[in-house]
Protein 1
Amino acid sequence: MKYQLSCGDAVPGCSARFEEDSRDRLLELVSAHAREDHGVAEVTPEMLEAIGANIVVSA
Ligand SMILES: [Zn+2]
């Protein structure tokens, strides 16, 4: 399974894309990206839920 996420789906204009074989790992990467590149001080569970809704899973 591949879990993919385009940050641009949540943040217009951001071209960052992520692909991992673990959903948890993907969310970790996205959290770090949000902190470092979008200045998000703390990624809340609500934010993770919203981000998770954009994850595309492929075989
Ligand atoms: Zn981004």
Protein 2
Amino acid sequence: MACIGGIHCIKGNVNTQDMAHKLEKIIYPNPYHIKISVAGCPNDCAKGHFQDFGIIGCTKPVYDIDRCIGCGACVKKCKGAATRVLSLNDKGKVDKDPAAALVAGNA
Ligand code: SF4
Ligand code: SF4
């Protein structure tokens, strides 16, 4: 199964339908009744965590220092809901602690 993913959902990072159709052709039919799901983002509406094999579409953010206005929203979000590796420096730009990021698997 797959959620609606990137073709309709504003949260979708990947085309879940396309991936599910490709997987279906590769996997089925098979004698093991394996359950696979594809979710378009970490909200995981397709319940990938409950399947035999779950795929969750993610993005790897790229920091563009020239476009950063130093609002601190990413730092706040990182502190509250993620790995706490971001901080605002005295120039109003974002620093990422490379050691902490490495430990968090996010270098
Ligand atoms: S898992 Fe993400 S992309 Fe898929 S329907 Fe839910 S919010 Fe949308
Ligand atoms: S501080 Fe973070 S959220 Fe704000 S503009 Fe810079 S990168 Fe974007």
